Amino acid sequence: QLDVVFPADDVAQLRSPTVRRELRISPLPLVKFSARLSDLLHYPYGCVEQTLSRFGPSVACRRVLQASGRLPAGDLRELPRMVEAGLQRLYAMQHREGGWGWWSGDDADVLLTAHVLRGLEQARAADAGGDEGVIARARVWLLGAAEKEEDAVRLAAIACAAAGNDVASQK
What is the CA radius of gyration of the chain? Predict the structure, then answer.
């Protein structure tokens, strides 16, 4: 038996004709990615956050496929190209000093840089790339930014990203 409890405020939204919720449960680690991969293939592809929002799931999907020993089929054959395109775009959008902003021409942002660094670390852990020079420059920039940072949450994100740790897995 599975009970799903939604906060009372969300219940009204669930009944809205413009909102659709879907839950798929599979006993297999390889859920049918191909059904949702086209969403990734057509995800908006502009700023750093959007690039990372396409890149991260592509890396995760690739990792699960490799672990399962299954060969990609259908749209999944696009994964290597998508991962490589995401890496190259993130590399190109890194600022000279090492951080990332929302766009190539704006100021680097601490949390966004930590987020990108986490994504690059995950790619490297999945043997999907992760240029050491790019990662090293980002860590150096984050450590420099930490000296000016006063917010504890942002400092924790900086410290974990600079150390190569996944902020979300810290307890």
Answer: 18
CB 104 within 8 A of CB 139: no
Buried b / exposed e over 59-82, threshold 16 CB at 10 Å, is bebbbbbeeeeeebeebbebbeeb
Please count the other Cβ atoms lying within 10 Å of the Cβ belonging to residue 57.
18
Torsion of Cα atoms, 9 then 11 then 17 then 22, to 10°? 120
Each residue of 41-51: pLDDT tens digit? Answer: 666 668 999 89
Tens of pLDDT, residues 111-135: 899 889 989 988 988 888 888 899 9
Helix locations, the chain, DSSP H:
8-14, 34-41, 48-68, 79-93, 110-125, 132-146, 152-163
Interval 58-88: pLDDT, tens: 888 778 777 777 666 666 677 788 889 899 9
This prediction's pTM = 0.69
Q: Using alpha carbons, select from 89, 86, 32, 84 the residue that is nearest to residue 61.
A: 32
Residue 94 and residue 103 in contact, taking contact as beta carbons nearer than 8 Å: no
Q: 3-state class of 69 per DSSP?
A: coil
